[in-house]
């Protein structure tokens, strides 16, 4: 390969990167949790940088309202109701077929998070969902893996890098105790109450704010993976594009020695499996917890384990009683959708049958009870 054929040439010239940094990136495995405004940008930057394996977990399908800021997706993906993880994987395979991109269509929760995190050198939280962030913090501390997280809402955003205390010798990212910092629970022992924080649903989000937060996350991730010697320190960056202000704070020394997670190693958020365990293999959707999707007038209901081809056919046949059924396959996933109108309004139902899970998305209402009744009526 001559210099002009080297796609990572500009990156290797960076201080601390070089051929060695590129080799480390190639050997790295990164878990990107969430493939929305942050996750699309982060996973694209990781793939373009030559990270060896990028695993993307997301439970949602591409919606037309995502396209304003979720940079890997197209109108066609929204029309075909492609699961975001699969759409991202397909696009990223065109960017660099040499990177192994794994798409997992699933919700990350206390019951599966440790399994998804365990095989990776770094976790990048792109969810902007506090409950899951605390679950991922428990995983990061428990496994001794760095956690990068970010968020954006309105014109503002933030990103942080956490290097949990660890005695483990990590595969790619190694650091000594002097560089370790607080975990999320050292900084805020409990997640905010629902309604306590603004969401993109309540105040909107500027794509640039999401893009900057995601680029900060990817920047932390790439430096953590490539740099020799490692110069990344635990830090929190905040910005506001309405005023043009940026601030950065080192988190070195912010550790709470009495922290229940990184101090006493009690992983409360990982222990909350009872809320999700019931949805695992029982197939009883009434036992599972619906989620109202931010800004979408839609509700998602986990339906449990993956479906056999025969079950998919049976579901499609039942849905045909409501309206015209459309079936689209991508990778190992299939979406089965139909739309109809009823006296209380327009409704749509999409069943996303993936290799890892099955979920229903009910459109036309943000009322979980309405969504449950639609699923019960149509799917039985
Ligand atoms: Zn802590």
Q: Can you give a write-up of this model?
A:
The protein has 380 residues and is α/β, with parallel strands linked by helices. It has 2 domains: 3-250, 3-Layer(aba) Sandwich (Rossmann fold); 280-379, TATA-Binding Protein, CATH 3.30.310. 31% of the residues lie in helices and 23% in strands. It is built from 13 helices and 14 strands. It has helices at residues 9-12, 18-27, 37-49, 75-79, 84-95, 113-118, 130-143, 184-187, 200-203, 207-226, 274-277, 309-319, 368-379; strands at 29-33, 53-58, 100-105, 122-125, 147-153, 156-162, 235-240, 245-250, 291-293, 298-304, 326-330, 333-342, 345-353, 358-363. The strands form 2 sheets. The protein has an 8-stranded mixed β-sheet with strand order 3-2-1-4-5-6-7-8, sandwiched between helices. It has a 6-stranded antiparallel β-sheet with strand order 9-10-14-13-12-11, covered by helices on one side. A hairpin with a 2-residue loop joins strand 12 (333-342) and strand 13 (345-353). The radius of gyration is 21 Å and the shape is globular. The N and C termini lie far apart (59 Å). The relative contact order is 0.13. The model is unreliable at 274-287 (pLDDT under 50). Bound molecules: zinc ion.
